Amino acid sequence: MKIDPQCGKPFLPLRRVGMVTPATKQQFIIAIDGPSGAGKSTVAKLLAKRMRYTYIDTGAMYRAVALKAKEKGVRTEDESALARLAASLRIAFVGKNAEDRVLCNGEDITEMIRSPDISLLASDISTKASVREILVGMQRKMGGEGGVVLEGRDIGTVVFPNAEVKFYLDADPNERARRRFEELIGKGIPVSFEETLEEVVQRDRNDTSRSVAPLRKAKDAIVIDSTDLSVEEVLDRMAQSIRAREK
Q1: Which DSSP category does 155 fall into?
Q2: H/E stretch holding 91
Q3: CA-CA distance, 169 to 217, in Å (whole number)?
Q4: Cα gap 26→39, rounded to integer Å
Q5: What does the pLDDT look like over 66-85, one tens digit per residue?
């Protein structure tokens, strides 16, 4: 501390008149809900990168439980066993070589959870209230501080009903089935378009009719139909809506 030689007292720090400390930019919770195949995962990942936010794939968490239940022989009818299993899992999302990966208890399960049978099993498991309670708790812990993009079926209605920005991304069932079919064929999974369309229709039926946290639009969600839109067009619409909320 410097001393003023004239009075023998410490120098006081100078105040910069008219200067204010810039406020920290608000970190939003961005919720993206919608049916299977609407493009939520693709858009959410890219939006998170554009915003420099963390991406949380909540659907992958249910798929992780489904995968481990299948491996361990836990029946979907045994809800208490499924809940114990879910509580035992450490699920994390990490970036590796510019690609997001899903880890479960340290194991990379990204590819294993994308098969059609795991998709349908995850849809069934997501109807279990005790499992949802555990996974929703994990999701709230991951995203509660903001600066996150989450996608799923009930993010804006149940997980984060007070999210600053909510989107509901939809598309025609046939278009969603086409996207899913091309994704599976590209991964070398032998399926027909008819089988894929039936899977999409079944997922819609399960997601909208379940008694616990069914798929529905939040009242304040911004609806985007991606049927005839490119990924970039969807992203631009979302970014425009987010900028409007920042003002």
Answers
A1: I
A2: strand 91-96
A3: 9
A4: 26
A5: 999 999 999 999 999 999 99
H helix intervals, 27-172: 40-51, 58-72, 79-88, 116-125, 129-143
CA pair distance 103, 64, nearest whole angstrom: 9
pLDDT category at 25 given cuts 50, 70, 90 is: low
The model's pLDDT over 176-213, given as tens digits with 9 standing for 90+, comes to: 999 999 989 998 989 999 999 999 999 899 889 988 88
Rounded distance between C-alpha atoms, residue 47 and residue 238, angstroms? 8
- Kindly state the helix (H) or strand (E) to which residue 94 belongs, with its residue range: strand 91-96
CATH of segment(s) 29-246: 3.40.50.300
What are the sequence ranges of the domains in the chain? 29-246
Neighbours of 127 (CB within 10 A): 18
